[in-house]
TrEMBL record:
This is DUF1304 domain-containing protein. It comes from Sphingobacterium tabacisoli. The chain crosses the membrane at residues 6-29, 50-70, 76-97, 104-123. Keywords: Membrane, Transmembrane, Transmembrane helix. It comes from the Bacteria. Signal peptide: none annotated. InterPro entries: DUF1304. The keyword Glycoprotein does not apply.
Amino acid sequence: METIALILTGIVALEHIYIMWIEMFAWETTGKKIFGGSLADDLFIPTKKLAANQGLYNGFLAAGLIWSLLIQDPIWSFNIGVFFLSCVIIAALYGSLTSSRSILLKQGSPAILALIFVLLSRYM
């Protein structure tokens, strides 16, 4: 259980590093390919700074998840992991309500699965 929890948490962290990269450094190229259906092409240049700000937040989520994997104390590792996975889930829920329902599937599902395994590894 613990190994699966670690792997899933790592996957969620990697996903948010990727999102950070898109939003901060590749908004007008890769971002346009990925988000083109939900945002008009002419809006990518004027929204570049806004996307970079969102990317920074995604980077913080990834950093927190990575931090949880590096903490030696099992109680602190668990608490930090639960906190940051919960933040990802809440952000995905909000995004699914305000932007696109697919966010819940793409970002929320991996985090929910990781959180389940983190909880199972602690309480089983």
